[in-house]
Amino acid sequence: MQTLWPIHGTEHQTWSPSGQGPKEDRIFSVFQASIPPFIANTDWVPTAELSTLCETAVIAITRLDAKAGLLLSPLTAFLLRNEAESSSKIESVEAPQIDLARAALGIRSSDHAKSTVAAADAIEDLILAAENRNPADEEALTDAHRILMKNDPTEMKHAGTFRDVQNWIGGSDYSPRNAVHVPPAPARVGSLMDDLHVFCSRTDLPVLAQAALAHGQFENIHPFTDGNGRIGRALINAILRHRGLTQSAVIPIASAFAARRDWYFEVVSAYRAGQASLLVEFLASSAIVVCMEAEASALTLAELPEQWREKAKPRGGSAAALLIDSLLATPLITVESAAWRLGLSETAANSGIQKLVETGVLKFVGRGKRDQAWSASDVTDEAEGLVQRIGEHREYLLTPNVRAHLSKRGLLGS
């Protein structure tokens, strides 16, 4: 018999209107805020079926991580970019691949593209920090949040700090009126995050369950004014790294969550009602799907250099040949970056780039004559292909329990 997870409580809070917004917001005065339970020492006893599902997911993750270890940085960087793009997409932060390439190279691009690149940096920072310390370490989380939000014109003043104001999800822009969820009062955030820190230090829990439960707790604490979703999903991979389940790979779990945001949001909400097993099941089944498709991407990526050589037919040791050997790891280049990385003159690097452009290996992604940059479009195309393939598997994200819950909520068949 599976242990029930503690249910969240609520408490009355008063609201001081800002004087902005419609009349309903200007007279709004009382709301109900959530009180998440402390979970540091809560037992977790899964059913036999859920244990088997988690073990299957662990095997899938381990296999993918082994692939990343063989390909080293090319697959690791590819999966990191994919996770950042999908995690940002969940928050309706989207940009086309060409704009993302520009942002990654520091070329003039959209705010959404810059935000997505910042998300990749934040995810990587939190995962690397988790190799040597608790994934929920306050400094690690706030450092990652600072990276994510430091250039956001609205939120940069809150970057890298836990919130000291009330936040809410959905409803009005001016008050918690009609909010879908109101996280705990700011005075509770510190103790709740300390409790989560202890929970993440445990080694007696199955890794996938710990990652899912920590994610659910983090999202419902909502410790930052903004950026909670992206940092909270990064926490999943940070726990996998901290527990030693991954050594190289970033599991692109957000691609599965993005395939059906409504399902993902529902199981995170169900966590508040004590139905934490739904989130564990959704994470485990999602991991199985994304790892399978990411392995397919690994095979595709591994074949690309030979395909590029067949297209371009570069002379051995030429600038074009050296570029081809480096494109999997760094598919976005400028003349200056290529010259520096490969130890070439800028003239030689430019010659090699033009050779690969003429043969279709590289695609121009810059802006005019001033911002010259190129991308190995086969790599970015595969990134889009991975997301699409994961989306096509969305029915496989559902265990019978999750399916039954979503059906009751009217979220199936849509």
Please tell me about this protein's structure.
With 414 residues, this protein is mainly alpha-helical. It has a domain at 9-295: Fido-like domain (Fic-like fold, Orthogonal Bundle). 58% of the residues lie in helices and 4% in strands. The chain has 17 helices and five strands. The chain has helices at residues 23-26, 48-71, 73-90, 97-104, 111-130, 138-149, 186-200, 207-221, 228-242, 253-259, 261-272, 276-312, 319-326, 335-342, 346-358, 377-392, 400-408; strands at 9-14, 30-35, 332-333, 363-364, 374-375. It has a three-stranded antiparallel sheet with strand order 3-5-4. Helix 2 packs across helix 3 and helix 10 (253-259) crosses helix 12 (276-312). It is globular. The model has no long low-confidence stretch (mean pLDDT 92).
Short note summarizing the structure:
The chain is mainly α. The protein contains 17 helices and five strands.
